[in-house]
Amino acid sequence: MSVELKGVNELIKDLERIYGKGALQQRVDAALLKGAEVFKAALIKEFNRFKDTGASLEEITISEPMDFWGNRTVRIHWQGDKGRYRIIHLTEFGTVKNPNPKGKGAIAKAERSASEAYFQVIKEELGRG
């Protein structure tokens, strides 16, 4: 399934002209951070189902908004003393010795369950003002 949006570039130019480039970026950044909080909550809910020590939950981190290939984005990653970022990939996809760990697919499930709420938060945040 593909979707073609027409007039997006013109819309962005109009918004930049009305609000200014800096003000528009601040609004987008605020919306991205609130949307990231929604996704983080869904991640926490999924990770609670199979947590052992809770270290993976404690290390979920939201980055500051940044430009990535011409788009504003926020990264959700694992950062902390316990180095859980090394284990997250193994838990999400499994290994040869353990192809089906308890938390297999937890990030994908969180993404699916939070997508509608994420887009709703983004829409509300950008619609304010």
Report on the architecture of this protein.
The chain is mostly helical. Helix content is 58%, strand content 9%. The chain is built from five helices and four strands. The protein has a two-stranded antiparallel sheet. Strands 2-3 form a two-stranded antiparallel sheet. A hairpin with a 2-residue loop joins strand 2 (66-68) and strand 3 (71-73). Helix 1 packs across helix 2 and helix 2 (21-48) runs antiparallel to helix 5. The protein is elongated, with a radius of gyration of 18 Å. The two termini are 33 Å apart.
List keywords for this structure.
two-stranded antiparallel sheet, mainly alpha, 5 helices, 129 residues
Helix fraction bin = 55-70%
In what range is the share of β-strand residues?
5-15%
Quick one: biggest sheet? Answer: 2 strands, antiparallel
**What's the total helix number?**
5
- What is the average of the pLDDT values? 90
Shape designation: elongated
The number of E-state strands comes to 4
State the strand order across the main sheet: 1-4
CA-based gyration radius: 18 Å
> What class would the helix/strand composition place it in?
mainly alpha
Low-confidence stretches are none
End-to-end gap: 33 Å
Order of helices and strands: HHHEEEEHH
